[in-house]
UniProtKB/TrEMBL annotation:
Signal peptide: none annotated. This is Gluconolaconase. It comes from Fibrisoma montanum. Pfam families: SGL. Residues 45-259 form the SMP-30/Gluconolactonase/LRE-like region domain. InterPro entries: 6-blade_b-propeller_TolB-like (IPR011042), Sensory_adhesion_molecule (IPR053224), SGL (IPR013658).
Length: 322
């Protein structure tokens, strides 16, 4: 596979301190609908974010390798793409930039035998110019024979990005200057015979929470204690005790919202700094192939992506947690 790393630019270093926080924290306070329906042919949008500068949701696309926007009235528009962009998975917005995972599960119009299951990249686009500013290759950090799938990304306040790989048991670290490394690898806790690591969030107490979908577990990675990994034992789960097969993870007001099974969102709470946790509520019956969420206006909005399908769907939606 053709590997490259685009220059980040000196101006980016000057801006990173002010743009690293996820953009939903600066969102307007206008009322949003409980459900936003939108139409786009075969979009299958895996990732969602929100830009207060655009005053729109951003959604990715697995088949087409692009990012589009959805306003609160349900109007969808294509926003940006690039020849290198195969399939858009998880993403975060930070000021005028969007960080998006570029992968290939073999379902994109740009999939090739060379890139399928062998792509893990972090792309950074400028939302004003709509141009690709940086392309960081992550799969090159692993042996060529290892499968790769960059799934989700979270941002720390200093601009460091952390990316999960669903096919290899690693979390990548991308420094503010674009330098990539493996933060941690765990062949037991991060492994899975199916989809492994998935959603990831940065907690203000300087640790990561990550979901292992196949194991049905949440893990904590303590960034200030040698990246120590510990399982977060979650109680009050159903239908299986102590099992929460998480996809997207979103923090809001101290609680963790976990998209699970494509059909539910669980509100999870901890009283011991995420050594243990409990499900305090499930929101159900309004999710179809749901993937991940974003916090906007002190609410959780989840993307109904019809994930797992690869047909001719055109109707998608964004649902508020109830």
């Amino acid at each position: 596979m053709n590997k490259q790393l685009l220059s980040w630019g000196l101006f980016m270093a000057a801006l990173i301190g002010t743009t690293a926080c996820e953009d939903h924290r600066d969102s307007p306070n206008a009322p949003f609908p409980e459900r936003i329906n939108f139409v786009s042919e075969r979009l299958y949008p895996e990732g969602i974010a929100y830009s207060s500068r655009l005053a729109k949701f951003l959604v990715t696309s697995i088949p087409f390798g692009k990012i589009g926007t959805v306003d609160t009235d349900g109007r969808y528009e294509d926003l940006l793409t690039a020849p290198e962009f195969i399939a858009g998975i998880g993403m975060k917005v930070a000021g005028d930039r969007v960080f998006v995972c570029n992968s290939d599960q073999g379902r994109s119009v740009r999939s090739t035998t060379a890139t399928a299951r062998q792509t893990a990249e972090l792309l950074v686009f400028n939302l004003t110019t709509r141009q690709l500013e940086r392309r960081t290759d992550l799969d090159a950090l692993l042996p060529a024979a290892d499968p790769n799938f960059a799934n989700d990304v979270t941002l720390a306040p200093d601009g460091t990005a952390y990316v999960t790989d669903s096919f290899s048991p690693v979390i990548y670290r991308v420094a503010p200057d674009g330098a990539a490394s493996i933060l941690v690898r765990d062949d037991v806790r991060f492994a899975s015979p199916t989809f492994g690591l998935n959603g990831i969030v940065y907690h203000p107490n300087n640790f990561l929470i990550v979901a292992n979908t196949g194991q049905g577990k949440l893990y904590k990675v303590d960034l200030q204690n040698g990246n120590a990994i510990s399982e977060i034992v979650v109680s009050n789960t159903s239908p299986t005790p102590n099992s929460l097969p998480g996809d997207g993870l979103t923090l809001l007001n101290g609680d963790l919202y976990v998209v699970t099974g494509g059909t539910r969102v669980a509100q999870v709470r901890s009283t011991d700094n995420w050594q243990t946790a409990t499900v305090v509520k499930y929101d159900t019956d309004v999710y179809t192939g749901a993937t991940t969420s974003v916090a906007v206006n002190n609410q959780i909005y989840t993307l109904n992506a019809r994930i797992g399908q690869n047909a001719n769907d055109r109707d998608f939606s964004i649902q508020r947690f109830r």
